[in-house]
Records
---
Amino acid sequence: MPRPISATIHPAALRHNLVRLRRAAGDAKVWAVVKANAYGHGIERVYEAMRGADGFALLDLQEAERVRALGWRGPILLLEGVFEARDLELCSRLNLWHTVHCDEQIDMLAVHKTHAPHKVFLKMNSGMNRLGFAPQRYRSAWTRLDALPQVDEIGLMTHFSDADGDKGVAEQVRVFAEVTRDLPGERTLANSAAALRFGSDAAVRGDWIRPGIAAYGSAPDYPVNDIAHWDLQPAMTLSSKLIGVQELKAGDTVGYGSTYTADAPIRIGIVACGYADGYPRHCSTGTPILVDGVRTRLVARVSMDMLTVDLTLVPQARIGSEVTLWGRAANGAVLAIDEPAKAGGTLGYELMCALAPRVPTSVDG
Ligand SMILES: *Cc1c(COP(=O)(O)O)cnc(C)c1O
């Protein structure tokens, strides 16, 4: 028998979350963001559930090829555009929309030979200071693009730095709206946090929202709000089983470095899951975890292939009992990925993407 760890992808949750995002953003169309192999869920595994979106957005040209290979005929957007001139050939062949964020990408387009002109999104750097044209350079870039026979429609795009935090999006929205005021074309601004928090504002939702994380069932502004607040469901469950039980007496310690010491007799369960599976090593004693669907806590250090849990609240637990690291337990109890992520000093984003290839993954339903 293989090690009893596995991940399960939940199409019904993906569908639910997309409906939820659509509701938050009125009449906007939805780019389902499936970069990083659908945030670690697997493009092929999420495709059926996510084809209810209006388009797929990603960065990697090979991932765009995979979405086309699944039979998707609708829009696909390259969020960072092309990396070199010959990428444009693939854009022409696969009919990909691509972001244009710098002069070099316009130069490449200007010498590209294509029968079918491309749809592009021209990206403004409205304050994030990663990719995009500065506001004062945006309109000249637009004029240059507009003059190219290789370009058909020009959409207008920006990305928020603080949609999930106190600073919010108001200043970036103001800059974007001012510079693009009289330009034609579809607008796209909002990631998950902006769509959920500010999607009722037409200037924020634009014509297309670009949700990623919320579609997978993580709250973008956790811990201010959690998935229950946003009515999101986990799209991934990481589960395993107890492969050992130890009865400790007061003074006994657990694991490498003996970081946990029992102050009274306690039953400890040994779980077949470690950092080599993608569980964060920085999670320490107190991190929530479900055993038989009952909320308990991790104790001691996470090691490569195992971690240890407090069985005080689950006296019936024995070897073979179900353990839920994140997601949904068999009894329906939910542990949002945001909780272990926070305890490990990271985000749901990173945990999803870091699910290790050695974890067998399937799709339920
Ligand atoms: C990743 C990404 C998104 C999705 O962001 P979430 O926070 O996961 O919703 C949207 N737009 C761009 C440009 C991105 O790179």
Note: The pocket of pyridoxal-5'-phosphate is lined by residues 33, 35, 79, 159, 191-193, 210-213, 220 (CB under 6 Å).
---
Amino acid sequence: MKDFAGYRCSVCGQEYSPSEVTYTCPRDEGNLDVVLDYDSLKKKFQPEDILSRRDFSLWRYLPLLPVEEPSGSATPLHAAGGTPVYLLQSLADRLKLERLWLKDESRNPTASFKDRASAVVVARAREIQADTVVTASTGNAGAALAGMAAAVGQKAVIFAPKTAPPAKVAQLLVFGAKVYLVNGTYDDAFDLTIQATKEFGWYCRNTGYNPFTAEGKKTAAYEIWEWWHTAHREWHKEAGEESGHAPLSVFVSVGDGNIISGLHKGFKDLVALGWMTGMPRLFGVQAEGSAAIANAFQAKADKITPVKADTLADSISVDQPRDGLRALRAVRESSGSYITIPDQEILEAIADLGRVGVFAEPAGAAAYAGLVRAVRQGIVSEGDPVLVINTGSGLKDVKAAMRSINEAPVIEPSLAALKKML
Ligand SMILES: *Cc1c(COP(=O)(O)O)cnc(C)c1O
Ligand SMILES: [Zn+2]
């Protein structure tokens, strides 16, 4: 029996049983938090029960998830999560930080962070025997849903703006989803998806709207917790000290705000279980042209005013964030901050990360661009250990990548021609 107790509305606090609601709060359309029975979990599990498992995918954390793992194994769905963390010493030196790491979510099966959400939503779809799963997407959520659905033979329908990068559209089609390119923005696709869901009885994965997306995304927080134990210990050993480091600062880019609220949920679970003390500081990075949540943070407001989004980072190009309130809280309650960056700095960040062997799409590189700003503005200081999350692969948007570097020269195939160029 799962310790999935139900839902709690993030706006009015109303609680619902698992069978009572499916998406948002019927009263006020607030995002629903999945409620776990922490007392029961505490009685049944110790951290060691998880840390000793041989499975390094997100299913490692099965006891803390509100779904069962779909049957079968060794499919892409079963391989989501478990992404590597790299130490970026040369970039740390350049920014005058003691320690800087990057968690590379481009290593997920469909090459973005969204696989975590889609794996868990598809698991839920199997449980409730949904015939068809649908999502709106700027590209990655759809690619992840299409890939995870294909892996277990689930039907999927995707609505993406027709401006989505071609590589992402190719993924949708290759995975065999039914794809509709919407003549409009991501927000238009989002609203159409909800209408279609109501009309046809499909199961809707829309980011934030579906409470299980954050539950999938929270698994990255569990991985960070596990990794930090080890990294922290090694660091102390090297430094020859016992304790006294500042808390970890985590940088992640923000569009709808579901990744950052998922991370927050994961850390809150661990604190509630008594498995973690303190909480990493969460830093949300938005493009200047798509900064609805950052604007509310700067204005100390609780209401999020939509913007007319304009950024080259398509994955975080959002007029009206669908998980804005929880995304604001994630940062406020963890003593972090919101940072905005112009597109030019995103392009520079793609090049900087490339030089240390990480190929990020614009929204992935945005997190690093935010760190560069935060250091410059004194929001982060030398002794703060920092983890940047690269949320998606550079192969997903080659056109943007080419804007971040100089094109290669073409030469005649002769040594003389080469000598002239050198
Ligand atoms: C979706 C996405 C984000 C932003 O996540 P939100 O939950 O919308 O805030 C960032 N980077 C990439 C690559 C994404 O696909
Ligand atoms: Zn409510």
Note: The mean pLDDT is 96.
